[in-house]
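Following up on my earlier message about pyridoxal-5'-phosphate. Here are the inputs again, as you asked, copied directly from the submission form:
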Amino acid sequence: MNKPVIINTTPVPMLDLKAQHEPIKEEIKTALKKILDSGRFILGDNVTSFEEEVASYHGVGHAVALGSGTDALYLSLRALDITQGDEVITTPFTFIATAEAITYVGAIPVFADIDRRTMNISPSEIEKKITNRTKAIIVVHLFGQPADMDEIMGIARRHGLKVIEDTAQAFGARYRGKPIGAMGDAGCFSFYPSKNLGAYGDGGMMITPSAGICERVKILRNHGTVGPYQHDFIGYNSRLDEIQAAILRIKLARIDTYNSRRREVAARYTSLLAGAVECPRELDDRTHVYHQYTILTPQRAAVEMALKHNAISCVVYYPLPLHLQRAFDYLGYREGDFPLSESAASEVLSLPIYPEMDLDKAEMISQIILNALG
Ligand SMILES: *Cc1c(COP(=O)(O)O)cnc(C)c1O
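Thanks, got it. Here's what our run produced:
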């Protein structure tokens, strides 16, 4: 490997939450003051309004604000009656929370390989994994790229399976004009600070077209409470607080602008890097929101080294697919079981991207990558 050419010394982070806070800080201060003066911190007006606003953004009947994205997945599985011994098909190329939630209800994660074009679960691989114990599919819209929803919903209908959308990385993405998260039985969002709609702490939400599922998750998030100190089943504690809800409402009003800025940065990267590395695909029928801008290259080590020497952050999301994680040893998978997930894991590299990022930075970073590959 050649010694990297240095053209930059000012650090570039993966994202810049301080820059996002700056233009909204007065609005946030005002909202927080109101909450602090009101003394109402849990399940108040901000949570109710935020639920209505997210439901309406997605054109879906119901939304329930929760403590995290992981809780949204777990409580959706519970509300859909997925239980001990049931099989749930999902991708091995995702953040571990997706599969962890399946284990929380005693169900078995069954992995199906990805499509390299989208890095999302492949519909034909899902079909191969269906057995008479399969109850549901958890689709992940990884990095902000919508999965093949029409095909997946078709498979689910034919086999009588539930569909949960893990939308933790893709708030506002669209598939054939429809907002993702609103096509399955439940859509699960995370508002972890680094997500494309991020709170100032933990938070999550489930959206659903079903009044029944909404009702069940609302009861589950509050200890199975159906009336004052009356508990019909064992619930959980997973409530978004008023402070996070108020902050998220302020950011929700700007989410489309944030996403379109991400798309501009992504377009600049792609215009400069296409040909040298495999860039994320912008498919005709969907709107990618670039929670991450993730390239694929067999020369990843050289690119990482060059970026590091130039003070540019970059991260490998994800270096080890879930079927090879020690936590899932008990499932009995082996190396070679999911070749496309494995090769993606060895070639992916996520570059800095955030709404406030200058296009100049994308150009400079692209130049460093081109130099490294030159
Ligand atoms: C972040 C994330 C989650 C979990 O969300 P938390 O709010 O951190 O619990 C689940 N799935 C995916 C794909 C994620 O990126």
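One observation from looking it over: Residues 68-70, 94-95, 97-98, 140, 166, 168-169, 190, 192, 202, 204 surround pyridoxal-5'-phosphate (CB under 6 Å). Hope that helps, and feel free to reply on this thread.
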